[in-house]
Amino acid sequence: MRASPTALLSVAQMTGADCAAAARGTPGPLLMQNAGEAVAQEIIRRWPLRPVTVLCGPGNNGGDGFVVAVVLAQSGWPVRVALVGSRENLRGDARVHAMRWGGAIEPVTPAAIEGAGLVVDALFGSGLSRRLDSQLAATLAAVAVHVPMIAVDIPSGVLGDSGESMGASAADCTVTFARKKPGHVLLPGKDLCGEIVVADIGFPSGVLESIAIDTWENDPGLWRAAWPRAQIAGNKYTRGHALLCGGYPMTGAARMAARAAARMGAGLTSIAVPQIAFPVYAAALTSIMVQPLAEDADLSRLLLDVRYTAFLIGPGAGVNDGTRRRALELLATARPVLLDADAITAFASKADELAQAIRGPCVITPHEGEFARIFQLKGDKLARARGAARQSGAIVLLKGADTVIAAPDGRAVINTNAPASLATAGSGDVLGGIILGLLAQGMDAFWAAAAAVWIHGAAAGLFGPGLLAEDLPDLLPAVLRRLDTP
Q1: How many secondary structure helices (H) and strands (E) does the chain include?
Q2: What is the DSSP letter of 165?
Q3: Which one, 227, 243, 429, 481, has the greatest CB density within 10 A?
Q4: CA dihedral sign of residues 211, 216, 220, 222
Q5: Domains assigned to the chain
Q6: Which tens digit of pLDDT belongs to each residue from 265-282?
Q7: Is residue 239 within 8 Å of 436, Cβ to Cβ?
């Protein structure tokens, strides 16, 4: 998995790869030449011949830009180059390639893009750690309004490790090198990059493999080996028994979650519900078993049955001490537990209590509001999810269009396939059911969470506009068939 195409490299790791390549005999100017040529070829592939302005910065990103300018000019494209600072102040590989440009060089101002049919943003890339200068930001904003823009490495102003915007403007396309960075897939960087092309620039064999990767873009290739497969000699109990705690009077959330768990392959799925809610659940569910809880001790008696292999509490449960007590009971079994929705908020300001209660595999699935009620953590989304996982000992699935799944050991996966149609009431409850179904079958909690988020997005993508959360469980078989195809 170290050299996986879905590995995400930090800015420091990418710098280290450059240094390692040089140490193995691949000079920096050659890597820069390959990078600039890759951008130029992408331009030639995408757009018909037109006037191009290449905006170059004072570092290596600017060096890439000078290569782009030279290659396009040699191919007959009308090219203007604008530079931050002077060519004489450039250093290292960037200076080598800047000296190969024989045309005029002008300052980076809005005037530099007048008459351009395409602009190349080679100002700063992922090396920037501060807000863009106001004149540079204004120039890029003017570009975004008038002509297409292609970014080298990452749009200038997007932080490579977090996706945070420091005055960036959106590119139509971004060409990055060897592997993506977290900033390419975390919002708002994800939206600002446009279409992302990953170019091979000739790192020697072994360079990427030597990097200790701990972050990936979500993809079935990551978790397919951990995927639970039904055995011909198995039975419903060997496929696991999922148990949900259903709420009242909000009953729809748990019912959708239960159907999703069953669709994902749990051999049996049960819902434990308050006695008053039994008729509602029993009338609405057929293959899902409903267990009425007449008194508090009834849940404790259910948990004595070791054939229950995973638990979910939260959807429609209500934010109260009763929900928290039941969650603590489930966690005390040391069997896999998923805390979602109200079961998360029930631990508001009680992060220490939650961490002390976790004894076995545990997944928590907060959105940003729920996350803030428990964890007093600052920083970007990836850093906060990692911090919460370390603090709690749980797999933390921080939801959003760029959902982050983080493990206590520092591993993280960022999901990128969620369509906008998932922003509908109840879709998170279905996600919880998908995770539960995989946990019940014995899948590792980290990979179960990552797999569930990807499957959730893939199912929504099959439906398209007009999606309701209740549509999702019935879309799962089509996604599962795709995953079962060799």
Answers
A1: 19, 17
A2: B
A3: 243
A4: positive
A5: 11-216 (3.40.50.10260), 220-484 (3.40.1190.20)
A6: 999 999 999 999 999 999
A7: no
